[in-house]
Amino acid sequence: MRMQSFHLSTQGASHIKKNKECQDASESYNDENCAIAIVCDGHGGDDYVRSAVGSAFAASITKNNILSFISDVNKDELKRHHPQLIKTLQASIISAWSSAIHGHYEANPFTEAEISVLSERARRKYLQEQRIESAYGTTLIAVASTKDYWFGIHIGDGKCVAVNPEGKFVQPIPWDEKCFLNATTSICDSDALNSFRYFYSEKLPVAVFVGSDGVDDCFSSEQQLNNLYKTVLYSFATSDFSEAVDDLSDYLPRLSAKGSGDDVSVAAILDMDMIGEISVVKEFDKEKEKARVEEHARIAALKAEEERKRVEAERAEQLRQQQAQKATAIKRCGHCGARLHPGMKFCSECGTRIVPTASGSTVSPVQPDPNATPDHLKIIKIVPFGSDSSVPASENTNAAVDSAPVADSIPEDEVIITEKVETAGEPVIEVAAESVEAVGPPVEEASEPVDTPETALPSELLVIDDIAAEIPVQTGTVEIEAADEMPDEAKTSDGVKEAVDADDV
Hints:
It contains 13 helices and 16 strands. By secondary structure, the chain is α+β, with helices and mostly antiparallel strands. The strands form five sheets. Strands 1-10-9-6-7 form a five-stranded antiparallel beta sheet.
């Protein structure tokens, strides 16, 4: 076996924001006989004003005491009496640490700045020089491996994760139930020796990692924490050792920023001859390739979705512009060229019915049905006050209209209005009007004279629009023929309309 170790500690993201020093400390050691990895996490509360000093002392003192322990203790004796011997090791570490921090305090009494941040209880206690070790409080995790055995000791929070030859991740050190949320046991506790946990085994690991709670608090599950260490193993198995250490060192600050925000420390012992052979590393290549393919597929899908949205946006913009152009375009009558306004059904100049074209910018005239009476033609009958509405057919000038179909008796290019007006003491005025051009689409004149139809109306017909103003009119009643009396093809969508307003009669 070829064991190597490393250790890393970095200031947490929250400590950087608060301008607070890194309170973690770590150590590592390896030679041809053994390897050691240690992580200490100084307490972050205001009363632990010197926890950074305390964690540094704990890391260095533990490394020295473990080296002495491995050198002095016979492996066979350790195998038989490891509970007692390891407890002795723990006691020696606590004692050496206590002596170190008291020596530091005597040389460096608390400053006014340190006193000012203490709670009232801690201030009274420290000023009376009672339990000053609390100001240096820290946790401690340490593992050591030889060619014959390995063991670990632990007080406080943080985790030890080992990888056995079968490639399984395990946590060999029992968990301390006293550690909950921000509460933790500490080497500064008066009963610290009883709070220490340990393990001992002759089955050597392929790798063992120790990390402060700033690391494991970045993950919501043990599986996620194991995935971190799986990635680290793969990095060391496929890269130069120092390069892999540097990569992990660069990653830890980002881990803190995305996760706990706390200081983070990692130390490890690796069997460099074995880590490349375990299944988790070999399978990592496949998982990495699968993840790479999935990532490429995800990126391609995102690009395709972005392109789809871009095309849809362009189409929507083009449609919007087209609609805006249609809305602002000047529409003109396709017959006379007069400008049209929204909502118009007929041209105000020529009377042509408005039918939008496909482009929506122009309109085209609708040619009338030759057999239909134009919508604007109305036939009325005017009867003066005092007259008998039942006029004999020989005297009623509308008899011809009543007795013959309108569509058959009126040419398509004429508007014929029948009127009979009587004034008091004056004879009936009967006037026949010439045919007039209908208000509607123009009809080309025939090149030859047009014969008068045999069904032409009597000469007593009158065009109201031309001469109504010249005739004295007595107030009378206006009877408008019902729509039912007109041929179906002569009706408009609005039924029969009034051709003459009451003011014109």
